[in-house]
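Consider the tokenized backbone below.
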């Protein structure tokens, strides 16, 4: 079995537990748990001095995906939980390392190897945090991540209960022949190998992470670009539940638009549908941001966005149908609404062009059609749109 070990014992400069500090909407402990999950662990052990909301949240999150979790207030239980044939991966207290560098040091889950990550003794993190990054030899220090056999863990029973368990395990790993892996300079550059000590520094790294992961506004699709700008502005607030909340708002407002189109003014119904589609674009952007922040291979990748986009288009098509044929009337031209939505979905696929971007901006389309409905030219506008998008699809160059 592959087991992960982390700790929530040490405190930052302002006296708060390092593990509880927030980084891009998640506590440091959750970042470490995500990294261990990406490395393929089946059980996570955490050394703590007592329960906390962050600890309980991480426990529930891991257990919901079938990963065992044990919070230990003493390392005395470690020998009973780690067998000799197990593999143990350790992450230092409060460390948020670059996932790519950790994968380079320890390998992928299918080709995993034992190693002690190391960096030069004069690394900028070393001097102020010598207790966290212990010396391995005259030229190197431990970088805060290691993978070792489970057998040496049994020797912890011979040490006093107030000893530093992670420091002891580092020494035991080195004594039993775990090789050192020297991290490249680029892998431990500023911001990529982070110790949660200074809250101001965490905010700087957080802004850089969000800037890299957040969707970039593309003004060829104006409301989709505005939604991306909203996501960047709101982050990191609301990252935990923002996508769920925005998805719920999108569906409720779209349903209100369908009902209004069926029994009330078509222009109002389409305007409501446009606002609902905009909320769906915000939800998709937040989902993409959260997914981009996850360690590679973690099981938390959000998969709701394609389903939400399909639901938005289905409700938009229904709204257009009723806008042309209010309940309980029937008009043959009502098929133009679903036809335009279907053609727009086809035009938005597989090409980064102005046509694809504009066709994918469902909120802008619906709000433009709301204006057409208010002017009394909705059916004519839909007919022109259908012919125009169909012609563009027929004239589009096939992929090479």
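A designed sequence for it:
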């Amino acid at each position: 079995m592959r087991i992960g070990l982390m700790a929530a014992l040490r405190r930052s400069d302002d006296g708060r537990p390092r593990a509880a500090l927030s980084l891009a909407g998640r506590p440091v402990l959750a970042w470490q748990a995500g990294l261990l999950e990406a490395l393929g662990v089946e059980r996570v052990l955490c050394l703590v001095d007592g329960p906390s909301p962050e600890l309980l949240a991480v426990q529930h999150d891991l257990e919901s995906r079938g990963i065992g979790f044990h919070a230990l207030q003493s390392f005395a239980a470690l020998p009973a939980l780690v067998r000799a044939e197990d593999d143990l991966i350790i992450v230092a207290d409060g460390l948020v390392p670059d996932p790519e560098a950790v994968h380079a040091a320890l390998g992928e889950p299918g080709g995993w190897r034992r190693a002690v990550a190391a960096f030069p003794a004069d690394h900028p993190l070393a001097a102020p945090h010598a207790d966290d990054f212990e010396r391995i030899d005259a030229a190197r220090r431990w970088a805060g991540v290691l993978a070792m056999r489970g057998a040496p863990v049994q020797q912890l029973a011979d040490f006093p209960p107030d000893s530093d368990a992670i420091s002891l395990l580092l020494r035991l790993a080195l004594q039993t022949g775990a090789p050192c892996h020297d991290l490249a300079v680029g892998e431990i550059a500023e911001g990529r190998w982070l110790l949660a000590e200074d809250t101001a520094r965490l905010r700087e790294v957080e802004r850089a992470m969000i800037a890299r992961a957040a969707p970039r506004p593309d003004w060829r699709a104006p409301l989709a670009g505005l939604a991306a700008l909203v996501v960047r502005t709101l982050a990191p607030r609301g990252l935990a539940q923002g996508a769920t909340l925005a998805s719920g708002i999108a569906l409720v407002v779209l349903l209100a638009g369908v009902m209004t189109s069926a029994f009330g003014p078509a222009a109002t119904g389409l305007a409501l549908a446009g606002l609902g589609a905009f909320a769906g674009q915000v939800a998709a952007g937040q989902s993409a941001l959260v997914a981009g922040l996850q360690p590679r291979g973690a099981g938390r990748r959000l998969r709701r966005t394609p389903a939400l986009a399909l639901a938005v288009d289905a409700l938009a098509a229904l709204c257009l149908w009723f806008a042309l044929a209010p309940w309980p009337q029937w008009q043959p031209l009502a098929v133009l609404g679903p036809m335009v939505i279907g053609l727009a979905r086809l035009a938005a696929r597989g090409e980064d062009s102005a046509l694809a971007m504009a066709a994918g901006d469902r909120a802008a389309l619906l709000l433009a059609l709301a204006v057409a409905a208010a002017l009394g030219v909705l059916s004519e506008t839909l007919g022109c749109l259908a012919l125009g998008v169909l012609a563009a699809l027929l004239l589009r160059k096939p992929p090479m």
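Residues 95 and 195 are 5 Å apart (CA to CA).
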